[in-house]
Amino acid sequence: MPRGNVLLLVSGGIAAYKACYLTRLLRQAGFAVKVAMTDAAQRFVTPMTFQVLSEHPVASDLWGEGQSRALDHVEYARWAQVAVIAPATANLLAKLAHGIADDICSTLLLAHPGPVIAAPAMNDNMWEHPATQANLAVLRQRGVEIIEPGEGWLACGVESKGRLAEPEQVLAAVERRLAAAATGPDPVRRFWTGRRVTVTAGPTCEAIDAIRYLGNRSTGVMGAALAQQLVALGARVNLIAGPGSAPPPAGLAALERVTSAAEMAAAVSAALDRGCDWLFMAAAVADYTPRRPLTGKLKKETQGDTWTLELVRTPDILCDVVAPRRDGLTVVGFALETDDLLANATAKLAAKKLDWIVANDPTAVGAGFGARPHSVHLLGPAGEIWHNPQPLPKLELAAELLARLAAVSASFGDLA
Ligand code: C5P
C-alpha cells in the first residue's frame, strides 16, 4: 500500500530536471506518483523519463495525443491526495490564481479538490514582479502552500532569489500534509492549521551613518522557533526578520527581511493589509533611531573626544500600527524585563492592547539570548497562564507556548 497518492505537475523551467529527482524521492519514501507536464516542461525533460520514474503514464496533453494510452485526466486529479507543482512557473501560478484551464496541468489543478503545494522557480525579476506576488497572495489566501524559492545561482546567469526549493523540502511538505490527513489532526494542529500568522524576529538596526548602526543583542532564535513550529502545525506563516537573525525555517508562506524599525513597521502593516489572524511580535525593535543618519562615513577626526548622538523615538509597532487595527487579530507581545518582570509585563499587556504577552528576564539564571534554554511566563488579561521554571530549548518552548495559546483560545470542547 502506498503512503499516499501524489500528483506531480511539472511546468516549464530548467528546474524541471530536479522534478525527476523529486519523483524518485517520493517513490522511495513510499508514495505513489503520477506526473503531468506542461508543453514547456517537455522541452526540458521528456515524458518518458517521468513515466519510467513514476511507473505510470504521463499526462502530457489535454487531448491524449502522443500518449501510450488515453488517460482520463480528471481521474488523475481525483486520484491524488495532494497536488505538487514543482517547478511552478509564474505562468502556471497565474493560471491557477485566475482559474484558467487551457492545458493539461491547469485543468488538472482546477479538477483537484485536495491540498496543493507549489514550489516556484523562475527568474528573479519574474518572482519579484507585482503580478506574480499578487497571484501568490491569492493562492496563499486559498490555502495553497508555497515553498519559497531559494537564493543562489539562477540559470539566467545571476545570483538571486528564484531557485526551486530543494526536492527534500518538497518531500517534507508532502509528508506533513499527508500525515495530517492520515492521522486526523491533533487538537493543537487543528487549531493552527490554515491560520495566517505573522511572526517578527530578531533585532532592528538603526543607521548612524553608512557603516555604523545602533542594534541590540537579539538573535531572532525565538521568532524562528515559533515560525518553525507554526509551519509544522499547518499555519501559513509570514516571517518578518531583522538583520542577522536566526536562519528561517523551511515551508514559510513568506519571508521578509527588514533592517530598521521603520521598515519592520511597514512590513507588519503590509502583512495586516494582506490579512492576518495572529501576530507574534517577538522582534526586539529598537526604541530610538539617530535623528539624522549620515549618508557617508562619520569621521572621528571631526567629532573630537566626545560625541553626542541625537536619537528620536521609533514608531511603537504594537501601539501605532497594530492597536488601531485589531479586528479579528490576536496579538502576542514579548516583554524583556530585568526588573519587576511580571508587573512590567502586565502593564505592557494593557498599554499595548495585547491579548497575550510572553515575559522573560534575559539576565535570570537559566535564561538568555540565542539558542540557550529559556524560562518564560505567558500572561493574559487574567494573569499568568503558564510558566516553565525549568528552562527549555527554544524550539520546545515555542511548541509549549503554541499549545497553551491554542488551548485557551479554542472554543470549549474544540481541544477536549
Ligand atoms: O515596550 P517594549 O519594547 O518593552 O515592548 C516589547 C514589545 O513591543 C515586543 O513585542 C516588541 O516586538 C514590541 N515593540 C514594538 N515596537 C517598538 C518596540 C517594541 O512593537 N518600537
Mean pLDDT: 89
Structural class by helix and strand composition: alpha/beta
Q: Distance between the terminal alpha carbons, to the nearest Å?
A: 33 Å
Number of helices: 15
CATH topology value of the largest domain: Rossmann fold
The total strand number stands at 19
Task: Please identify which CATH superfamily of the largest domain we are dealing with.
Answer: CoaB-like
Proportion of beta-strand residues: 15-25%
CATH class of the largest domain, named Alpha Beta
What gross morphology would you assign? globular
Helical percentage: 25-40%
CATH architecture of the largest domain: 3-Layer(aba) Sandwich
Structurally, how many domains make up the residues?
Answer: 2
User: What is the radius of gyration?
Assistant: 24 Å
What molecules are bound to this protein? cytidine-5'-monophosphate
Low-confidence stretches: 412-416
Strand order of the largest sheet: 12-11-8-13-16-17-18-19
Q: In this structure, how is the largest beta sheet organized?
A: 8 strands, mixed
